[in-house]
Amino acid sequence: MKNILNYPGKTAADPQNHLKRILVVDDDDLMLEMLMDCLSITGEYETIGSKEALTALELIEREPFNAIITDINLPGLSGLELLKHVTRKDAKIPVILITGYSDPERMRMAIQLGAFDFLRKPFDMSELLIRVKQAIEKNQLMLQNDLYQHHLELVVQQRTMELFATNAKLENHYINTIHAMVNTIEAMDIYTHGHSERVTAVSILLGKYLGLSIEDLKLLRIGALLHDLGKIGVNKPLLEKTAVLSPDEFDLMKLHPSIGARIVDPIGLPAEVHDIILQHHERWDGSGYPNGIKSEEISPLARITAIADAYDAMTSKRPYRDAMTSHSACREIEDNLGKQFDQHIGAMLIKKIAGIQELLKDQVNLRQHIFAAI
Q1: Quick one: CA dihedral 180, 183, 185, 188, positive or negative?
Q2: Are 72 and 106 in contact (CB under 8 A)?
Q3: Which are the contacts of 166, defined by CB distance < 8 A and separation ≥ 6?
Q4: Of the N and C termini of the chain, which has fewer Cβ atoms inside 10 Å?
Q5: What residues form DSSP beta bridges with 48?
Q6: Shortest CA distance to 276 belongs to which of 250, 302, 297?
Q7: Residue 356: exposed, middle, or buried by beta-carbon count in 10 A (0-12, 13-18, 19+)?
């Protein structure tokens, strides 16, 4: 038997060939052929088979795949090592692991490495088809989101660069342009209208309470206004969903800080503004995203924005939950000091909550507060 098998599926001769490509890795000849037969007979998949992980890695380097199925126990390079390589190369390729026994430590390690799912021997072929279909759906969702993001990033970068090149020396016009971008962001998400302005107003007031310099307050204003810029690169149906997001959907939503940072990279905004956009969902204990940095590694201005963002999110109504009271939101922040939030900044918000509430009540003058000379 050859080391590499190719099962093209029923419609591979079609010049359009829209079959999804699946790589199957198993050193057992019978199991490998059985898996490939089961997938190919559906007419939906083109299956490529390999008996060893090293050959599979060579295939992955030179050919595209929509999903991978691999036994954990392989000669030479193991299935877990193959999983690690795949995750590093392209996390959009879901990997399904086949195992013949239950090993909690190994399963935990596989999950940490990014395994999509598991098949425990013996398994029914209908179970295989269900898992593969789910893996393909996730792969397609991530590919579509990448295309959507790339297109919008190019458009936004082009428009934003044109605007900033013209108005860089006119601060008032500069700030008004940013405000127009914020309106664009929030127009995509009807449930968070006014969110960026409220977060900015609270951030600036917190910054003043904390004794920030005028220059830092100006940087904080711009970064807080643009903190959700990356939502432009998130599919609108996710923003408009009236139910709690699924784990896969939330993973896509969690990309918005990185998307926003990439959008502003070529514009030449100050590094402090870039860090606010990228880091406003990082947590003091390192459990945040996108990079899992912690404590003093997080920009001080991003820490301020994070608390203002959380406070406004908790006290705003969402389609899937009611708004919390200011008192309950403060209690939640207090419970998470030293975990999610910077202790000093969070304590300052709680201490000065009366002034913050007063500011947020005056919706008419809220924008004036934000855009007034600092």
Answers
A1: negative
A2: yes
A3: none
A4: N
A5: 6, 23
A6: 302
A7: buried
Question: What is the per-residue DSSP string for 142-193?
Answer: HHHHHHHHHHHHHHHHHHHHHHHHHHTT-HHHHHHHHHHHHHHHHHT-GGGT
Find the helix packing angle between 79-89 and 104-112, rounded to 10°: 10
Q: What's the gap between Cα 193 and its chain centre?
A: 21
73: left (phi over 0), alpha (psi -120 to 50) or beta: beta
Mean pLDDT (whole number) for 118-124: 86
- Contact between 36 and 129 under an 8 Å Cβ cutoff? The reply is no
Joined tokens for residue 340: 């999610």
In sequence order, the β-bridge partners of residue 341 are: 337
pTM, 2 dp: 0.57
Would the CA dihedral through 267, 269, 275, 277 be positive or negative?
negative
pLDDT tens-digit map of 179-226? 666 666 666 665 567 888 899 999 999 999 999 999 999 999 999 999
**Range with the poorest average pLDDT among 240-249, 279-288, 297-306:** 240-249
Q: Which helix (H) or strand (E) holds 356?
A: helix 353-361
Residue 24 has pLDDT above 80, yes or no: yes
pLDDT in tens, 246-270: 788 778 888 999 998 998 888 778 8
Determine how many CB atoms are found less than 10 A away from the CB of residue 131.
Answer: 19
Helix boundaries (H) for 171-314: 171-187, 195-209, 214-225, 236-240, 247-253, 256-264, 271-279, 300-314
Check whether the bond before 290 is cis (ω within 30° of 0): yes
Phi, psi of 29 (to 5 degrees): -55, -45
Parallel, antiparallel, or unpaired for β 45-50 and 20-25? parallel
User: How many whole angstroms separate alpha carbon 331 and alpha carbon 327?
Assistant: 6
- Mean pLDDT of all residues in 360-364: 79
- C-alpha distances (whole Å) from 63 to each of 49, 325, 339 are 13, 54, 43
